[in-house]
Write a structure and sequence with these properties.
The chain is an all-alpha fold. It has twelve helices and no strands. The protein binds iron/sulfur cluster (SF4).
C-alpha cells in the first residue's frame, strides 16, 4: 500500500484540500452525492442553501419544498426525508445544527455517533470523519472497490471498509482515497481499463494478466 501510495502520488500529486470542512455541510453534501455526479450534487446543494440559508429553515420546511430544491441530485423525496430527519435528530440531541462536538470525542465514539444517524453508512460517516476532522478513516466508494479488487487488495467478499482499513498507512487516508478514485475515474474504468498507461501496472495482478493476454493475442495473430 505504501508503494501504491507513492506511485499514485508521483503520477497525480497530492489532491487539493476538501472544498468544505464544515462537518454538517459535508454530511449533507455526501448524502446528496450518492448515485449521482459531482455536478448534480453541487447543483442540489447550492439550490438547497439558496432556498434555505440556514439548516433550521431546512429542518422546518415542508418536505416537498426541500425535495424540490435538491431535485438535481435525484431521489429527492427520499433524500429530503432523510436530511430533515438527520437535522432534527442533531438538534434534538445537541441543541444546535452543528457536528463540531465530534472533535471532542474519541474517533471510535465519533464514528458510532455518526453511524447512528438514520440512513448513514460507513462511506458517508468516514467521509465526514476524515475530511472534516482528519480522523484516520478510509471511505470506500464504488471506484475504490473495483480498483482495490483488481489490485488484489480486497477479495470482493464482505465489508471492504473492514478489509482495507488495516492496510492504510497512518496519515495517508485522505490522499489515498482521492487518488484511488481518480485512478478509477480516469484509467481503471469499469470497462476496458487502460492498463498500459496505468502508473501502478507493476503492482497490479489484474493489469499484468490483461497486458500479457493482449501481448499473447498479438503474437498469435502475427504468427497466423
Ligand atoms: S493496471 Fe489496469 S486494472 Fe490495474 S489498477 Fe491500473 S488500470 Fe486498473
Amino acid at each position: 500500500m505504501r508503494e501504491l501510495d507513492r506511485q499514485l502520488r508521483a503520477a497525480f500529486g497530492d489532491p487539493p484540500a476538501p472544498q468544505t470542512k464544515d462537518p454538517l455541510d459535508l454530511l449533507i453534501r455526501t448524502i446528496l452525492s450518492q448515485n449521482t455526479t459531482d455536478r448534480n450534487r453541487d447543483a442540489a446543494f447550492e439550490a438547497l442553501r439558496r432556498k434555505f440559508p440556514s439548516w433550521e429553515e431546512v429542518a422546518e420546511a415542508p418536505e416537498g419544498e426541500v425535495a424540490e430544491a435538491i431535485q438535481p441530485a435525484g431521489l429527492q423525496r427520499e433524500r429530503a426525508h432523510r436530511i430533515q430527519e438527520i437535522l432534527r435528530r442533531i438538534r434534538a440531541e445537541r441543541g444546535a445544527f452543528s457536528l463540531s462536538f465530534l472533535a471532542q470525542m474519541e474517533p471510535v465514539e465519533a464514528e458510532k455517533w455518526v453511524l447512528s444517524l438514520p440512513g448513514v453508512g460507513k462511506k458517508t460517516a468516514y467521509i465526514v470523519l476524515l475530511f472534516a476532522f482528519g480522523y484516520h478513516r478510509f471511505p470506500v466508494d464504488t471506484h475504490i472497490k473495483r480498483v482495490s479488487q483488481r489490485l488484489g487488495l480486497w477479495n470482493g467478499k464482505g465489508d471492504p471498509h473492514r478489509a482495507l482499513a488495516p492496510l492504510i498507512p497512518e496519515g495517508r487516508a485522505y490522499e489515498l482515497h482521492l487518488n484511488l478514485i481518480r485512478l478509477g475515474r480516469t484509467l481503471c474504468r469499469p470497462k476496458n481499463p487502460r492498463c498500459r498507461e496505468c502508473p501502478v501496472l507493476r503492482l497490479c495482478p489484474f493489469g499484468q494478466e490483461k497486458v500479457r493476454g493482449e501481448h499473447d493475442q498479438r503474437g498469435s495473430a502475427e504468427a497466423g
